[in-house]
Amino acid sequence: MSTSSQSADVEPPVDAASLDLSAARRVIDQAKVGLHALSTELGESFVRCIDLLSSLEGRVIISGMGKSGHIGSKIAATLASTGTPAFFVHPGEASHGDLGMIADTDAVIALSNSGETPELSDLVSYAKRFGISLIGITKKLESTLGEASDIVLCLPDVGEACPHGLAPTTSTTMMISLGDAIAVALLERRGFTADDYRVFHPGGKLGKSLYKVSDIMHVGDEIPLARPDTPMSETVITMTNKTFGIAGVVEDSGNLIGIVTDGDLRRHMSSNLFNMPTCDVMTSHPKVINPHTLAAEALRIMNEWKVTCLFAVEDGKPVGICRMHDILKAGVV
Question: Structural domains in the chain?
Answer without folding.
Answer: 19-192 (3.40.50.10490), 213-329 (3.10.580.10)
